[in-house]
Amino acid sequence: MTRRNYLLKWFFYTLALIPVVFADQLILGRVSMFGTAPLLFPVAVTVVAVLEGARGGAGYGLGVGILWNACIGGTGFVILLMTLIGFFVGVVARYGISQSFFGAFLSTAAVVGGIDLVRVLVYLFIQAAELPALLKTAGAEVLCTLVFTVPVYYLYRAVFRRVGGDKLAWI
């Protein structure tokens, strides 16, 4: 694949991120569903990692992590987290699960469940919050996120079918 085609492919993946950012930051971030909002940035990284593999997932995770960190005003941990998620999901996708909706759905469930598990533990031990309330919120967030995995997956799958993998190698 030429450098031009490679850059063009990732340009289209970046364009696909625009509706995800719009939905996450401007629509779903302001509307509470079951007391929480879905996490669309990790879904985008997970789906691209399932479709493109470890290297593509890590690179996309780095870019999405930088964007998400800028949106939430974080400390930078999100950048490392999204990069690692992209890498490890890409490795598992290449050697353990298929490049399908089912694989992306399972990966998203594992990633978001892991993120919420860490959040529950942090709030439980550091801020001494109530466990039932934390589990209720975490469960609602995972369920909301899994619902939105469907449109995010099909958006990225459309991009992948057009320009993903080595499809642009012939141009």
Q: Rg from C-alpha positions? A: 16 Å
Oligomeric state of shown chains = single chain
Number of helices: 6
User: Quick one: overall form?
Assistant: globular
Helix content: over 70%
What portion of the residues fall into strands of 2 or more residues?
under 5%
Q: Order of helices and strands, N to C?
A: HHHHHH
Structural class: mainly alpha
Uncertain runs? none
Largest beta-sheet details: none
Please tell me the overall pLDDT: 86
Strands, total number: 0
Terminal residue distance: 9 Å
What can you tell me about this protein's structure?
It is globular and about 55 Å long. The chain is an all-alpha fold. The mean pLDDT is 86. The protein has six helices and no strands. Helix 2 runs parallel beside helix 4. The longest helix has 33 residues. 79% of the residues lie in helices and 0% in strands.
Keywords:
single chain, 171 residues, mainly alpha, 0% strand, globular
